[in-house]
Inverse folding.
């Protein structure tokens, strides 16, 4: 039928405009202005759509239009996006080009490279193997139908050079190596995670066993590990005599005051008389030997640090190895017994409760 002249003229103008903008995009790409080049190629793809809207890679009407020229524009945009490291967007452009020409070898190879960059190794391997298979078939049978009647007549498998073919095979080996390494890393990570979980479970189990064992030991030794409990056992028995924490002994009372020397003695004789009659200094007398606080010389509100300090001071003072005075050993035993009760928070609380009950 007859084709309107106005339509042909309009299509020719669109083609010229598209080619002109494509050349500008190529120039920007050569200058490494990848962002601007991608925008220019995208503008070319919108010319045939009779719209001034910006290019949208998701628009399937544009993706499937334009034949060879649009396939090339999509592939060129993919190259720009790869240079900008936008590999996922580049995959979409390569896919759009391959929808137009299924055997567009350059688009196929670029999509495989993008898959490798985003670590989709299985997809990358499939793309490389398809690329290499088509080249192998073209080399074996240059006159085969897949080569002569290929959908893409401007970038056929037979047009691939030996250098390009060898490079693609090497890239395939590298992708497979990366895939194995990634699998090993994932396997090692899972093994380490499982090992750490097992170790943590073992540590938790051992800790629980140790805690239970210590609790059992504390329970078993309770009632015979401190003086207060011994007193409780005494009170619970048939003994009618009052419990004596000092074992029936107490420090001797301090000696009486020194007698005055006879009148008329000289100062020298009086001093000699005083030295001869001087009694050894006796230990302090505890008013209430049943009160552990008084034994340590403290009040019932004393802190743990004060109790410990007083104990060390008095134990050092009345230790039998250092103090041979009469009654010092008994005071040392009382001090030690008082610290056994007051030095432990649990026994001190029980002791204080008992003191309040006896008042």
């Amino acid at each position: 039928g007859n084709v309107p002249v106005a339509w042909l003229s309009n299509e020719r103008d669109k083609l010229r405009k598209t080619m002109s903008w494509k050349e500008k995009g190529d120039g920007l790409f050569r200058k490494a202005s990848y962002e601007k080049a991608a925008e220019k190629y995208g503008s070319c793809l919108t010319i045939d759509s009779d719209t001034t809207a910006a290019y949208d890679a998701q628009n399937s009407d544009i993706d499937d239009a334009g034949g060879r020229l649009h396939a090339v524009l999509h592939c060129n945009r993919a190259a720009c996006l790869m240079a900008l490291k936008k590999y996922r967007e580049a995959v979409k452009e390569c896919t759009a080009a391959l929808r137009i020409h299924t055997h567009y070898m350059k688009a196929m190879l670029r999509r495989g490279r993008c898959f490798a960059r985003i670590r989709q190794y299985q997809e990358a391997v499939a793309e490389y193997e398809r690329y290499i298979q088509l080249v192998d078939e073209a080399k074996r049978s240059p006159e085969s139908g897949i080569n002569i009647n290929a959908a893409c007549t401007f970038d056929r498998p037979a047009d691939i050079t030996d250098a390009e073919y060898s490079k693609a095979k090497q890239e395939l080996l590298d992708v497979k190596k990366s895939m194995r390494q990634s699998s090993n890393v994932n396997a090692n990570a899972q093994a380490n995670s499982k090992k750490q979980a097992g170790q943590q479970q073992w540590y938790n189990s051992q800790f629980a066993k140790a805690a239970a064992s210590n609790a059992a030991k504390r329970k078993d030794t309770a009632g015979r590990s401190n003086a207060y409990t011994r007193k409780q056992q005494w009170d619970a028995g048939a003994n009618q005599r009052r419990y004596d924490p000092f074992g029936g002994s107490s420090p001797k009372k301090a000696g009486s005051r020194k007698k005055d020397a006879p009148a008329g003695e000289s100062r020298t004789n009086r001093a000699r008389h005083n030295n001869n009659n001087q009694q050894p200094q006796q230990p302090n007398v505890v008013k209430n030997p049943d009160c552990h606080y008084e034994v340590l010389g403290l009040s019932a509100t004393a802190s743990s640090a004060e109790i410990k300090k007083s104990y060390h001071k008095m134990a050092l003072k009345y230790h039998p190895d250092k103090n041979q005075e009469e009654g010092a050993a008994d005071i040392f035993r009382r001090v030690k017994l008082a610290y056994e009760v007051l030095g432990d928070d649990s026994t001190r609380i029980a002791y204080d409760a008992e003191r309040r009950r006896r008042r």
